[in-house]
Structure formats: structure tokens, C-alpha cells
Amino acid sequence: MGCYVLTRKQILPISIEEAWSFFSSPENLKDITPPYLNFKILSKSGSDIMYAGQIITYHVRPLLNIPLFWMTEITHVEHGKFFVDEQRFGPYAFWHHQHHFKPVEEGVEMTDIVHYKLPLGILGKIAHFLFVKKQLNEIFDYRFHVLEKKFGTVGKALKTA
């Protein structure tokens, strides 16, 4: 089938309100994305409050500095608990990214679950093996470290790929 799953968990010593405010704002994506990707938001809905149906467009340069257009739709939102973004146009054949937030004793446990599939059949599978899986893990590793610097650490972190 060629569908892959990436799961990451991280606990940050912040309130659920602070976590939601930061992660539900598309403007903050640039801060937690590695600079070499040259991530740029092209357009958003004009609303500061995330809502189901919201469309956000980007340029990202994951390979050879070639700009790729990416359009996502926020398909599900439960304020303070989770939201889902899905690719409508972009580099993947399928992209479904769940962002979950759960209050815990130490702060907030954040869980990212990404289901994705590459285009091009066997060539996509080869690309995944050669560099896509590694690059996605590097992106989420980068986010993990940036978030620790920004919000601090509680000494608990879970990473699964």
C-alpha cells in the first residue's frame, strides 16, 4: 500500500491554553520548521482563530531548493484538544496530520500522528527509503528541540518514528 505513519510525543511545561495558542497559529510554523526548507506561508483565511474548512497555502523547498506548492485544509478542530490538517495539493499523494493536546501533571502532552503516502508508486517507495523518511524525522527532531528551547523541558519526551 505504501502508506506510512510517523508518531511523535512531547511534554512541555506550559498550559493547554498556551500550547493551543501557539500550535493553532499557522504563523508559528515557520519558527518550528528547519530554515533550509525556506518555508513560506503564501495565504491564509484572514482569521486568527483556526476553524474547520480553513485553507492555508505554502511554499516549501524540500529537495534541491526547488519550491513546491502545498495547500492544506484544517478539516477537524476541537478547541484545546486537537486539530487535523490534510494536504489538498502538494508533494504527497496523501497527507493527514493529527495534532493532539492533553493536559498532564507536568504541563501538556502533544502528540503528532502523520499518515502519508508518496506519489509515483515504486519510485515513491524508493524515495521514502532513500531520503523522505529521514527528512521527515529530521523535521520533527528540529521541532522537538526548538520547542524545548522555547518552552523548556520536563525531562520526559517520547519519540517514535
In brief:
With 161 residues, the protein is α+β, with helices and mostly antiparallel strands. Helix content is 24%, strand content 40%.
Protein model, in words:
It is a single chain. The protein has 161 residues and is of the alpha+beta class. It has helices at 16-23, 121-151, and strands at residues 3-12, 40-43, 55-60, 68-78, 82-89, 94-104, 107-117, 157-160. It has an 8-stranded antiparallel beta sheet with strand order 2-3-4-5-6-7-1-8, covered by helices on one side. A hairpin with a 7-residue loop joins strand 3 (55-60) and strand 4 (68-78).
Rg from alpha-carbon coordinates: 16 Å
In which order are the strands of the major sheet placed? 2-3-4-5-6-7-1-8
Structural class: alpha+beta
Count of helical stretches? 2
Biggest pleated sheet: 8 strands, antiparallel
Helix content bin: 10-25%
**How far apart are the first and last residues' alpha carbons, in Å?**
18 Å
Runs in which pLDDT lies below 50 for 5 or more consecutive residues are: none
How many β strands by DSSP? 8
Q: From N to C, what is the helix and strand string?
A: EHEEEEEEHE
Whole-number mean pLDDT: 91
Could you say which overall geometry the principal axes of the C-alpha atoms support? globular
Reconstruct the topology from this structure:
Elements lengths: L2 E10 L3 H8 L16 E4 L11 E6 L7 E11 L3 E8 L4 E11 L2 E11 L3 H31 L5 E4 L1
Antiparallel strand pairs: 1-7, 1-8, 2-3, 3-4, 4-5, 5-6, 6-7
